[in-house]
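If it is no trouble, can you show me the amino acids of a protein and the tokens describing how it folds?
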Amino acid sequence: MTAEQYVTTEVPIELVFTDVDVRTAKKEYTIPSFTEEWFTHHKLHSDISLMRMEPHRELFRYFYGESGASPEPYLAWYERIHHLRGVAPPMDREGLLNQKRMEYVNMRSYLQNDPGYFTENPPLVTYRTPGRFNIQDGHHRAVFLYCSGLRRIPVRMTRADYETWLNPEALEDTVQMVALQQRNLIYTPILHPHFYGKRSERDEFYKTRLDVILEYLGSRDLKRTKVLDIGCNIGYYARHFTREGAQVTGIEPDPLHAELLMRLNRLERAEFELVREPFERLVGLQGYEIGILLTVFYHLMGDSGLSERFLSTLDCAVHGLLFWESGDRIEEEKSLLFKHTGFEEYVKLADTFGTGKYRELGVFLKRPR
């Protein structure tokens, strides 16, 4: 293709995914000494959110001096991609780490003094449904920019992919709905260039709740995983898990949120099942491996009958893990969840703050039966 057939633009980090695996891309022939063991390892980091690419992410967090970060996941990844093909790594650990540190220093200098460098040398991506960009070249640059706190990064794509992403017909419908609802402030980001200037109440700055959740999930295979997003608002989290290949059900009884959500699903090309009934009235929900319950349950805590029905429904529906964010009565809310459900363990993930309240983000777990 000619240069005129490509576009360089900024895309939200939530839409940036690692490259598809070599078999999907029909590029097995490019891998010397290909083995099935290597391919199994390779797939762990293929076609997942860039935010979940642990080896590269932890390397750059380590260089940035973030607490708890280590280069070990990257060094181990580098060794395995060679050893699993029976090939000796070209560089030892010390040499590799020194080389990557120099690359980090150079990229940080460009970011501080000449940020146009990344626009002139952007990662190359391909747009695929459901609504994501797969990196073909430039994973290290992209992860560096993500770990630098950028919520949008420059990428290069074909003009055809760019025009597909813009989705003008769905955009017009979405803009009309936002205007009709007079939304000057939205709860979570809308991942489309038209809305880059519109502030969101949550998940706007690194690290967001989504960053923390995806870090916890690591390279877990989410494809075909059943995910339940309770009180999904305008669908930000549900669409992300849809892009990850999960089978997502969103619960949103508020008619204004639901109407905008459906238009955003079409705009961002990430459709999921929507249930528009109050969660506590639903029967027969079961089999969900992951639940999402962010700033929802605390609204019901004043009504013991309603809250117990809600938690009974939750207990039946989710059998694996539950990502939860509290209201401002943190310990009381945790106690109710333990008392009225079968969740047996809890891991605190982060202190959070939103809509004027100090909160806590964590994950409840059920042991396999």
